């Protein structure tokens, strides 16, 4: 879920913002002192050289898996050897080889290792420049009669919003076959932008919003240096899809909400930059049909087929009409009104709550939709809910309220006109080719369970304008549901990310249940946790009231779920992180939901499903070698390229050194001193410099330490 969608939820859930701010005023916040003034030097581990980004694996098949690493070096090109073994000491080698990499691939290495055995744990390692990487652990998929398969499911990891504790917890598990990442692996926003807080102090690199290829590459590099994410990639294979933030907020084939062609250039160019960086940095298999096609399927024997969809870029059509600016202005007015009301009022009695709701009501209730008496009833009942919640603190807010009457009035009151909601009409969310592929895969699957991994919520979400999800593509969703119903396709389970919160419910085709949907909360990206417990409780009450097919709604938690697939049932178990603002804060078990074979309709449980087996020893978490490679300074990126007003050089120092950075024009004349003999300690740094005084053209950036000089070329527009 993106920042505008979060605002929409707060807008529709009437007084959410009011009570959130009221609660915040009573909260004491302690800063943890994490100001990244010199980059992420505390994440720097010289023992990993030159494989600072660790190792990764992904796209497991019965006889193959992708293994990945990145070599950080100043050399023009480098040869990398690799090997795969069945033991952690890497002595029982089953496959090995050599591959080259260079700047054209951003020094990433990706090998599609073949001729492996099914349902087997393997270990892998790389070597380059006389150094060995960490050992990674991976696993092939099973074939034939399969009794159990388990996935860790995650999405939405905004670096600026908190620590990747969910990744750390998943990395330590030995009971999952793979990690399914449902997108928003990175975020495109600038330092200090969406999700940033001084309380956490985790800033983005590059500092700017990412647009160019070098921007996207550096952002992936920055995320992959995070030790928690690096550890998860080391211990488990990934099955990934992108969402919008790997490109830009609310992206589609033709553009994005967070892309301005007048200042950021062609969307097609930016989209291709994002494509290329993604396929360089992610352990995903290259597609032989279409270079950047990501939708694909994975077989887990007769137990499950996993269908990974691209509901974001592949086929999502451009909007036909929108009133986005109007909607943003309305939400801005509402936020100002809420702030003013909270600062001027003390919310103590039911009457106090009624007065606040009455002033906000015109923002969410359509004029003329309710009679005066009906409007008064809605205001009184929500005031009662809010008052009870504030004083009792329980999420069971429904006592002594006629939910049926309140629901009917809310449905009547919140029937939002397209113009006000920014509601848009789309032709397709998948595109015809992908839609046909999905129908074919569902029809021909002989596996017991058909599991669909997708980005955005498929369930209907009444009461909240969610045109960015399947609600904005009702005709295509109807066609999909009809196909499932008419062809008697049973045991369909949908996995979803994007919206940053926990949902669990049934997919309804009219009155018929045709599938189940489990929605994973974010790893870190903000939800209603920023708005306080009263607001969250009201939002959850409102959502459940209007969406009876949703059995679980939790709008302020972060974490992951483990999907346990057995012949007789599929169960999702949610594990929540105690605090994303504090590293290694721990986790706790929240709840599980399951669906029985041929018995559509999910049920709750407080007992997590048990794995039938464990999957081998964990790989070693560090490389024991302490010898540095013979490169004192290593350039990790020069960006953006081309530059307009400013540029950056992102570099790594293996030892304390004196550093000079100088810019020359194409004639060899020095035109700018960026740094002169600057003393710096071991670590990773980013230097931002001004280029407004430079004429358009080609330039050379020279980084000098001792008798070593590294030269990188860039363009000023």
Kindly describe this structure:
The protein is built from 15 helices and 29 strands. Helix 2 (16-24) packs antiparallel against helix 15, helix 4 packs parallel to helix 7 (267-281) and helix 10 (372-392) packs across helix 15. The chain starts with a helix and ends with a strand. 49% of the residues are buried. The protein has three domains: 3-29 and 321-421, no CATH class; 141-319 and 426-523 and 558-605, 4-Layer Sandwich (Purple Acid Phosphatase, chain A, domain 2); 633-716, Immunoglobulin-like, CATH 2.60.40. It is an alpha+beta fold and 717 residues long. Helices cover 24% and strands 28% of the residues. Strands 11-10-9-19-20-21-22 form a seven-stranded mixed sheet, covered by helices on one side. It has a seven-stranded mixed sheet with strand order 12-13-14-15-17-16-18. Strands 3, 4, 6, 7 and 8 form a five-stranded antiparallel sheet that branches. Strand 12 and strand 13 form a beta hairpin.
The residue fraction in helices comes out at 10-25%
Number of strands: 29
State the CATH superfamily name of the largest domain: Alkaline phosphatase D (PhoD)
**Rg result:** 26 Å
Return the CATH topology of the largest domain.
Purple Acid Phosphatase, chain A, domain 2
- CATH class term of the largest domain: Alpha Beta
- First-last Cα distance: 34 Å
Question: What share of residues are in beta strands?
Answer: 25-35%
> How many strands, which pairing sense, and closed or not: the largest β-sheet?
7 strands, mixed
CATH architecture of the largest domain: 4-Layer Sandwich
Structural domains: how many: 3
């Amino acid at each position: 879920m993106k920042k505008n969608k979060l605002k929409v939820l707060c807008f529709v859930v009437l007084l959410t913002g009011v009570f959130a701010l009221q609660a915040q005023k009573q909260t004491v916040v302690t800063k943890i002192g994490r100001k990244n003034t010199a980059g992420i030097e505390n994440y720097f581990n010289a023992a990993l050289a030159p494989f600072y980004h660790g190792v990764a694996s992904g796209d497991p098949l019965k006889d193959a898996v992708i293994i990945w690493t990145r070599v950080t070096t100043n050399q023009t090109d480098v040869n990398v050897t690799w090997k795969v073994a069945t033991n952690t000491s890497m002595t029982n080698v089953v496959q090995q080889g050599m591959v080259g990499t260079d700047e054209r691939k951003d020094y990433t290495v990706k090998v599609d290792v073949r001729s492996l055995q099914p349902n087997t744990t393997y270990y892998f390692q790389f070597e380059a420049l006389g150094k060995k990487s960490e050992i990674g652990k991976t696993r092939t998929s099973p074939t034939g009669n399969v009794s159990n398969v388990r996935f860790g499911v995650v999405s939405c990891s905004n670096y600026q919003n908190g620590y990747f504790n969910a990744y750390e917890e998943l990395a330590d598990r030995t009971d999952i076959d793979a990690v399914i990442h449902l997108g928003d692996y990175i975020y495109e926003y600038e330092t200090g932008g969406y999700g940033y807080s001084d309380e956490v102090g985790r800033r983005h690199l590059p500092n700017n919003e990412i647009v160019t290829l070098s921007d996207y590459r550096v952002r992936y590099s920055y995320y992959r240096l995070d030790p928690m994410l690096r550890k998860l990639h080391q211990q488990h294979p990934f099955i990934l899809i992108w969402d919008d933030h790997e490109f830009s907020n609310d992206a589609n084939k033709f553009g994005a909400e967070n892309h301005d062609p007048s200042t950021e250039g062609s969307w097609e160019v930016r989209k291709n930059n994002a494509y290329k960086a993604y396929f360089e940095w992610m352990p995903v298999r290259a597609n032989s049909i279409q270079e950047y096609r990501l939708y694909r399927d994975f077989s887990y024997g007769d137990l499950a087929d996993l269908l990974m969809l691209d509901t974001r870029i592949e086929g999502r059509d451009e909007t036909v009409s929108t009133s986005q600016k109007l909607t943003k202005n309305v939400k801005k007015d509402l936020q100002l009104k809420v702030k003013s009301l909270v600062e001027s009022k003390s919310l103590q009695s039911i009457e106090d709550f009624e007065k606040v709701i009455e002033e906000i009501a015109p923002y969410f209730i359509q004029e003329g939709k309710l009679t005066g008496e009906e409007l008064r009833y809605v205001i009184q009942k929500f005031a009662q809910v809010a008052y009870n919640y504030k004083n009792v603190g329980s999420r069971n807010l429904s006592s002594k309220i006629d939910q049926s009457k309140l629901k009917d009035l809310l449905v009547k009151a919140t029937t939002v006109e397209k113009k006000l909601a920014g509601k848009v009409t789309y032709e397709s969310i998948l595109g015809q080719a992908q839609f046909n592929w999905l129908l074919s895969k569902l029809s021909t699957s002989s596996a017991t369970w058909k599991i669909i991994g997708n980005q955005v919520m498929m369930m209907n979400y009444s009461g909240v304008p969610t045109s960015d999800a399947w609600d904005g593509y009702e005709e295509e969703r109807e066609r999909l549901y009809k196909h499932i119903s008419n062809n008697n396709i049973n045991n369909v389970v949908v996995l979803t990310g994007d919206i940053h919160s926990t949902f669990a419910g049934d997919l309804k085709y009219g009155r018929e249940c045709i599938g189940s949907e489990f929605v994973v909360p974010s790893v870190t990206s903000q939800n209603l946790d920023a708005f306080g417990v009263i607001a969250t409780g009201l939002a959850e009450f409102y959502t459940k009231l209007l969406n009876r097919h949703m059995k679980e709604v939790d709008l302020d938690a972060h974490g992951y779920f483990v999907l346990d697939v057995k012949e007789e049932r599929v169960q999702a178990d949610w594990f929540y992180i105690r605090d994303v603002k504090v590293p290694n804060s721990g986790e706790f078990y929240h709840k599980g939901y399951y669906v029985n074979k041929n018995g559509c309709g999910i049920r709750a449980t407080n007992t997590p499903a048990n794995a039938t087996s464990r999957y081998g020893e964990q790989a070693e978490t560090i490389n024991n070698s302490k010898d540095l490679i013979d490169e004192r300074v290593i350039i990790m990126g020069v960006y953006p390229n081309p530059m307009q007003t400013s540029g950056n050089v992102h570099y790594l120092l293996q030892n304390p050194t004196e550093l000079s950075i100088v810019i020359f024009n194409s004639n060899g004349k020095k035109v700018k001193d960026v740094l002169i003999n600057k003393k710096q300690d071991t670590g990773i740094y980013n230097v931002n410099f001004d280029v407004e005084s430079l004429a358009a053209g080609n330039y050379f950036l020279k980084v000098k330490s001792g008798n070593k000089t590294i030269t990188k070329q860039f363009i000023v527009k």
